[in-house]
Amino acid sequence: MKDLTFTISGGGIAGLTTAIALKRIGIKAKIVEAAPEFKPVGAGITLAPNAIKAFQHLGIKQEIEEASNLISGLEICDFKGKTITQQPSEFDESTAIHAIHRGNLHEVLLSHLKDHSIVLGKRTTGFNKKADQIELTFDDGSTHLTDLLIASDGIHSPIRKQLLPDSELRYAGYTCWRGISANNFGIEKATESWGHGKRFGIVPLPDNQIYWFACLNAPVNDPQMKKYGVHELRQVFEDFHTPIPDLIGSTPDSQILWNDIYDLKPIRNFAFGDVVLIGDAAHATTPNMGQGACQAIEDAVILAECLKRSSTAAQAFQFFEQHRKKRAQSIVNRSWKMGKMAQMDNRFLSTLRNGLMRAIPASVLKSQLKSIYDIDFTL
Ligand SMILES: Cc1cc2nc3c(=O)[nH]c(=O)nc-3n(C[C@H](O)[C@H](O)[C@H](O)COP(=O)(O)OP(=O)(O)OC[C@H]3O[C@@H](n4cnc5c(N)ncnc54)[C@H](O)[C@@H]3O)c2cc1C
Asked: Residue 348 is part of a domain; what is its CATH number?
């Protein structure tokens, strides 16, 4: 298999981590990336223990940890700041979350691919089968021949759309802003504060920075939401506990990103002969469980393991699908439901929800987390 050419379309978290995982088994993949330069989203990201375990498998755990902040507590509270539930108190490696700036995560990943061919400014539009090979087509009219294609080109993947024209993106019913600001508030723990039809999350990053996100129920692609900046967001979250309004107010408008939240309705297949879909291209999820990138990182390790253990790539891709589809799609579905619960706007129901959640024993929460965080990479 080492004589075959591998091309990865999309140099995001899934694509770069996969290139590192393939390198470890002696496969040097070419990466084609649509963006003209690597300029990752200016936001933070949380990496759960399953992702850290994957990085350990790839031998880059320490670097990732050094660039991250180990979150010393994760609490869900109501909008007044009263605890609804919190991460089990015995805080250990099996439940520890690392928070990292996306730019720093990209830097660490790229530092392991210095000897790789990464072609920027190449937007894949689709592919054609040519005898035993695959011809990738790009929006500049150029083409590239490869034996095997790994599509990690994100939620809007043109390769997935070509393979599965009926695959469907689902709007979650809420829109989201993300911001980075200085931690002038002495914030040490990560929190998510649930109001009625809106919620606000705070995640401390290294270098005294805070990554925050704000979700609000809204119609899809609402022109009103598009116009929201610091001033409007501060007003929306004015009734939330301290320091939320001031934290929003202290964020430069230039440091705020806006996206409607979508996921990918579970699809039939990830593997299609010599082509495989990974990361968001295969199983984009709502961000409610903080698992989208973690699953993409798991994909990378499992894909390399499957390739190591198979005689043909097509067999490995099939094996990958068998290992990944059920787990990744169950997270997509759980996260979807969790979002519905977190974004409840009916006051009576959301008060009831808070009460019910407070009654869940810590042992139950811990076992729920374990089912997500425990992953065995030995196939
Ligand atoms: C608000 C929000 C918060 C989130 N928070 C978390 C979190 O805390 N923890 C977590 O684990 N996950 C989180 N996620 C999910 C996470 O961001 C994604 O799951 C992850 O980025 C997926 O990585 P990917 O490489 O598959 O896709 P992407 O990150 O979308 O990368 C795709 C790459 O492909 C490139 N590309 C796109 N189209 C083409 C093309 N046609 N040709 C070539 N290249 C192309 C893009 O430029 C990009 O570089 C969050 C998501 C959102 C929206």
From this structure: 3.50.50.60
pLDDT at 136: 98
Q: Where are the beta strands (DSSP E) in 255-336?
A: 256-264, 271-272, 275-277
Residue to substitute in 8, 13, 17 for testing ligand 1 pocket (most ligand atoms within 8 angstroms of CB) = 13
Query: Mutate which of 31, 32, 33 to test ligand 1's pocket (most atoms within 8 Å of Cβ)?
Result: 33
As a whole number of angstroms, the longest Cα–Cα distance in the chain is: 63
Q: Determine the structural domain holding residue 295 and report its residue range.
A: 6-169+263-373
172 lines ligand 1 (CB under 6 A): no
With contact defined as beta carbons under 8 Å apart, do 6 and 148 qualify?
A: yes
**pLDDT tens per residue across span 225-252:** 999 999 999 999 999 999 999 999 999 9
Lowest mean pLDDT among 47-56, 82-91, 253-262, 314-323: 82-91
Cβ proximity of 248 and 233 under 8 Å: yes
Q: Which two tokens stand for residue 356?
A: 């019910």
Distance CA 43, CA 254 (A): 12
Confirm or reject: Cβ of 64 under 6 Å from ligand 1: no
DSSP string, 258-270: EEEEEEE---S-S
Nearest CA to ligand 1 atom 9: 290
Three-state DSSP at 126 gives strand
First to last CA, the chain: 19
C-beta neighbour count of 352 within 10 angstroms: 12
Pocket lining: 25 vs ligand 1, CB cutoff 6 Å: no
Number of domains observed in the structure of the chain: 1
Q: Rounded to the nearest whole angstrom, what is the distance from the C-alpha of residue 364 to the centroid of ligand 1?
A: 31
